């Protein structure tokens, strides 16, 4: 089934306790589409500037990503610079230059309008709504958001949430959006805003899927080496949506649970190196092996009958 992502493509400069990388490939659409491309072809709608390296576009194309929807505009590409402390939980933003991304207004081609699965990356909620206006009959529309939109564009965000089927947020964003401190209450409050499902990303503590009558908690893979958490949430979403797009249209509970685990698998690879470098190396065989490891780590037998 066709999978469309609309979001950012960026050049990132990232500093962690383990090193510094400058002008590497970043952006929500880049991470998402690379992860999802392990499962299904992906169509990308984004914008880059005159300074964007051709090698990055060649990489995406080689991954099977349809980049016909990536427009090239005069000016510089969106740039982000951040730094992580030893905890690696949250980046300190040192510099943000929107550049050509500031005037990004996604226009879908006829082919894009027929997408069955749509991922609305972390862009202004009004732009997300415009994308929903353009797609014809999607099976599932998912969205991401952030504290900037929750604070500064809440009315527009709430209108968009009425039109999406699934929302990806981290735990801090879930609390901020809902006004609830307890994460379960926060998820249920978000469901009342419109989405049928919410996925709460919790970094090193895993992720949680909440529906009206269903709750599933997936751990994060315990890793000895974590170099750069940038893009982990977007690769989680890519693994999740890519899995759904290959499930023949099913959104049954076993499929959703498998998608959650595969999202965690993809994120666990991403953080092992800077930018998308680790995802350049791995194969589908590596995905299957780590998926099996997840199953082994989380499996346990039923409790035997206890004596009275």
From TrEMBL:
<dbReference type="GO" id="GO:0016301">
    <property type="term" value="F:kinase activity"/>
</dbReference>
<feature type="domain" description="Carbohydrate kinase PfkB">
    <location>
        <begin position="34"/>
        <end position="273"/>
    </location>
</feature>
<dbReference type="GO" id="GO:0005829">
    <property type="term" value="C:cytosol"/>
</dbReference>
<dbReference type="InterPro" id="IPR002173">
    <property type="entry name" value="Carboh/pur_kinase_PfkB_CS"/>
</dbReference>
<dbReference type="InterPro" id="IPR011611">
    <property type="entry name" value="PfkB_dom"/>
</dbReference>
<keyword id="KW-0418">Kinase</keyword>
<protein>
    <submittedName>
        <fullName>Sugar kinase</fullName>
    </submittedName>
</protein>
<dbReference type="InterPro" id="IPR029056">
    <property type="entry name" value="Ribokinase-like"/>
</dbReference>
<dbReference type="Pfam" id="PF00294">
    <property type="entry name" value="PfkB"/>
</dbReference>
<keyword id="KW-0808">Transferase</keyword>
């Amino acid at each position: 089934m066709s999978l469309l992502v609309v979001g950012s493509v960026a050049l990132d400069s990232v500093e962690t306790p383990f090193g510094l990388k400058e002008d590497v490939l970043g952006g929500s659409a880049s991470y998402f589409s690379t992860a999802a491309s392990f499962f299904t072809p992906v169509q990308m709608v984004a914008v880059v500037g005159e300074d964007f390296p051709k090698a990055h576009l060649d990489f995406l194309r080689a991954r099977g990503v349809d980049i016909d929807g990536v427009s090239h505009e005069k000016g510089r590409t969106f740039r982000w610079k951040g730094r992580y402390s030893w905890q690696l939980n949250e980046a300190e933003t040192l510099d943000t230059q929107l550049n050509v991304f500031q005037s990004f207004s996604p226009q879908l081609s006829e082919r894009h309008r027929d997408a069955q699965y749509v991922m609305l990356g972390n862009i202004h909620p009004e732009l997300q709504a415009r994308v929903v206006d353009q797609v014809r009959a999607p099976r599932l529309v998912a969205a991401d958001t952030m504290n900037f939109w929750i604070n500064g564009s809440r009315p527009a965000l709430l209108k968009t949430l009425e039109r999406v089927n699934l929302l990806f947020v981290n735990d801090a964003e879930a609390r901020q959006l809902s006004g609830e401190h307890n994460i379960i209450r926060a998820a249920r409050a978000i469901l009342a805003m419109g989405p049928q499902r919410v996925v709460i990303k919790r970094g090193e503590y895993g992720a949680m899927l909440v529906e009206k009558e269903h709750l599933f908690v997936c751990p994060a893979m315990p890793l000895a080496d974590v170099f750069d958490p940038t893009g982990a949430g977007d690769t989680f979403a890519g693994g999740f949506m890519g899995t759904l797009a290959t499930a023949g249209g099913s959104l049954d509970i076993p499929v959703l649970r498998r998608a959650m685990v595969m999202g965690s698998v993809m994120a666990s690879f991403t953080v092992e190196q800077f930018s998308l470098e680790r995802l350049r190396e791995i194969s589908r065989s590596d995905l299957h092996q780590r998926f099996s490891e997840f199953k082994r780590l989380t499996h346990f037998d039923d409790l035997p009958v206890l004596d009275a």
